[in-house]
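--- STAGE predict ---
source: upstream dedup step, 1 unique chain passed
mode: sequence only
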Amino acid sequence: MVRYERCTLSIVPCALSKNPHDSRLTTDHYYVSLHPMFKEYLLHKVFGIIHQRAVEKALRCYVVGGYVRDILLGRPSWDVDVVVEGDGIELAEYVASQLKPHPKVSVFKNFGTAHFSYDNTEWEFVGARSESYRRGSRNPEVLPATIEEDMLRRDFTINAMAISLGADFGELMDPFDGQGDLKKCLIRTPRDPQITFSDDPLRMLRAVRFASRFGFEIADDAFKSIKENGNRIGIVAPERIAEELNKMLMHKKPSAGFFLLDQCGLLPLILPELSALKGVENMHGVMHKENFTHTLMVIDNVAEVSESLWLRWAALLHDIGKAPTKKFDKVRGWTFHGHDAVGQRMVLKLFKRLHLPQNEKMHYVAKIVGLHLRPISLVEEGVTDSALRRLIFEAGDDLDDLLIHAEADITSANKQKVKLYLSNFTDLRTKLAETEEKDRIRNFQPPVSGEEIMEVFGIAPSREVGVIKNAIKDAILDGVIHNDREEAWQLMLEQGEKLGLKPR
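--- STAGE serialize ---
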């Protein structure tokens, strides 16, 4: 078993009793009388409407999964999954019709599910079903089923508990002792894990996510099965993998999940760029830093001060360019020259492969990765006004996030060294603020546009236009001229003359 942080849970004990109302239950299925303290979780009017409908139509209807688990863990939850033996879509539409204002119901007929948002809570309805995946297929075969069969298909025992919303309202169904596994801090599958993970390989990644989220262990047989079935993750749609990684990154301590991904063999299959950072090479007695461990320390540091998912992605990927750029020099030792620029390009490919957003979020992550060394170099080498202006200009609105990342990137075991670096960063922030206030550099547009250059010299779009614009930009950033239209205009004329251009 694997555990990263010992969990501490307080679960109210409930007395086990066979349900006398359902003859279809085998002797292996038990119901648990819900402790009175849990009643508050079922007071919402939506539950009341579902209960009335279930009684009227003699429906077996349950709230299942994460909502039940979180009740037992004493955690707040705003996602409710309702399972009914019958038509889940019909039940959702009926419940919505009884609410004011009527929420809009989103229907997914192929999966027999319906969803609506109401009172800051997400409500999902589905008919009880069994599902399985053919080898090589990403799409499950779905068939109607009983509640018991539906519980059997669930990923883990802690998610395979259900509270009745029907005639026996408030009774807890726990056929696989999910409560016991919560007390044991254990991730265990209801069925043979070989079947569970083979049917839906994404569950392997979910096992890691739940274990790292709650500080649980993965049961020995489940952990072994993940290692044996790891290659099957390849049939899972990239966007489903990305969703799990996003959730893992948003944990309080994201590193736990990625360490566990590495231990169970999933990391090189999902994020080979990150896995490639593992290990330390020794050449002539000279070793380099263990970049994988360092990376996970950085992401934990970022997580302590920022809730930004995309800044956490940047922290996770900031050093991925080190593997392809690693070289040994007899004089300088191990080098990773250009890993920032290489990593920036790798981010674009990785986002495309995982079907992560191909928009400003991707470019934000790539920008942070590409610039992540700049603040550190300023702290180490000293700060010039020109360097400050260039950093402000290139980082733009992302300057503050870049500095957060740079501070998080300081992971030396030498506490005195870390303290000194952080002190220097405080000074750097002050100087950046002063420079920004004085020179108005952040996101500045050159005082003279390309259109004006073409009009003044009577030329079409050409290399010369770019040369003049860059000369003006560099002069402002280097402090040769102020960020001023009159000075920029004069420089434009001078640069045009050097290029053989004459004003019209």
